[in-house]
Design brief:
It is built from eleven helices and eight strands. By secondary structure, it is an alpha/beta fold. The protein has three domains: 119 residues, Rossmann fold (3-Layer(aba) Sandwich), CATH 3.40.50; 47 residues, no CATH class; 139 residues, Rossmann fold (3-Layer(aba) Sandwich), CATH 3.40.50.1400. Strands 2-1-3-4 form a four-stranded parallel sheet, with helices on both faces. Helix 6 runs antiparallel to helix 11. The two termini are 21 Å apart.
Length: 337
């Protein structure tokens, strides 16, 4: 392929040390795509207040998983594996990591892309499903940098929006799900519990966020393939975790859904972290510790969790195929996959 090819992986980022937690939270809540305020100049002061109030609890949570987020290490490992997978397909490409709220920031990645003389760039969010608060925010940040720098505008940029229904992604998810089901005494009786990161309801109803519909379609696709490939007919639930603040978020909420399943007599529960492709605070602490405690307190003692995809070979190879397909597109415009 002509020109120097680059791939930039967009992700959330996470504090690597306990002393990083406040600034990470400030960066998060200062993003108007996370908290939308009618008076913009209040964004930073309110972000500072929220970060200060939440930092002590967040520090305790990060301390439970070793004192920091593993997200950067895992994302960089994913990048290296994608580079290798592309090389096996005859594509020489450099993969960069751009975190939205922590290092390496988007600005850092773009500076390196310019320095390396990249002429074709694939923008790949590591969020399978699109939301204005995740992929949307990361792409918006990237576009703002792009528009302010004429040098960047000579780079052919191909932006991928979402990829939740890719066959390789679904196959990798199902392989992990089936593997964990085998650890239960009666795999056919295990209730599959898909837990996704939530978003405020108004994002969907007022701002047109496709996240909820993409998430529902994603779970449907995984369950159909699971039945076809493994003859699994387990009951399943989709719920939403990690809500913040007093506004209404997508329901059912994960903790409430777990309690309701317990009331219905469910004894075996396998949680599938459906919106996360890397281990981080919301899998290692929120699901593995908090939601496990909720389950056990309500009589569900057989509690399992499907690992995040991380660098699962099927997943990595599918992302490489997606990149190759995107580079073959005629126009450097948003690619819906």
């Amino acid at each position: 392929m002509s020109g120097r090819v680059g791939v930039v992986l967009l992700n959330l980022g996470g504090p690597e040390k306990l002393e990083d937690v406040y600034l990470f939270l400030y960066n998060l809540f200062a993003d108007p795509e996370i908290i939308r305020l009618p008076i913009p100049f209040l964004q930073k002061p309110i972000a500072s207040l929220i970060a200060a109030s939440r930092a002590p609890i967040s520090q305790e949570n990060y301390a439970m998983i070793g004192g920091g987020s593993p997200l950067r290490v895992i994302t960089e490992e994913q990048g290296e594996n994608i580079e290798n997978a592309l090389q096996r397909r005859g594509v020489e490409a450099k993969v960069y990591v751009a975190m939205r709220y922590w290092e390496p920031y988007t600005e850092d990645a773009i500076a390196q892309i310019k320095q390396d003389g990249i002429t074709r760039l694939v923008v790949l969010p590591l969020y399978p499903q699109f939301s204005i608060s995740t992929t949307g925010s990361s792409i918006k940040k990237l576009e703002a940098i792009w528009e302010s720098d004429p040098e960047l505008q000579s780079i052919e940029k191909i932006t991928i929006q979402s990829w939740y229904h890719r066959a390789g992604y679904i196959r990798a998810m199902n392989e992990l799900i089936d593997g964990k089901l085998q650890e239960f005494a009666e795999p056919e009786n295990v209730h599959l519990f898909f837990s996704a990161h939530g978003v405020p309801v108004k994002y969907v109803t007022k701002y047109g966020d496709p996240y909820q519909s993409e998430m529902e379609n994603c779970v449907d696709g995984i369950m159909k393939a699971l039945r076809r490939d493994y003859s699994r007919y387990n009951a399943h639930t989709l719920a939403y975790q990690s809500r913040v603040g007093p506004v209404e978020w997508l329901q059912p909420y994960t903790e409430e859904a777990i309690r309701n399943l317990a009331k219905r007599g469910v004894k075996d529960l396998l949680v599938v972290p459906i919106s996360f492709v890397s281990e981080h605070i919301e899998t290692l602490q929120e699901i593995d510790i908090e939601y496990r405690e909720v389950a056990e307190a309500n009589g569900i003692h057989n509690f399992g969790r499907v690992p995040a995809l991380n660098s699962h070979p099927i997943f990595i190879n599918d992302l490489a195929e997606l990149i190759v397909e995107s580079l073959g597109s005629v126009k450097a415009s948003a690619v819906a996959v």
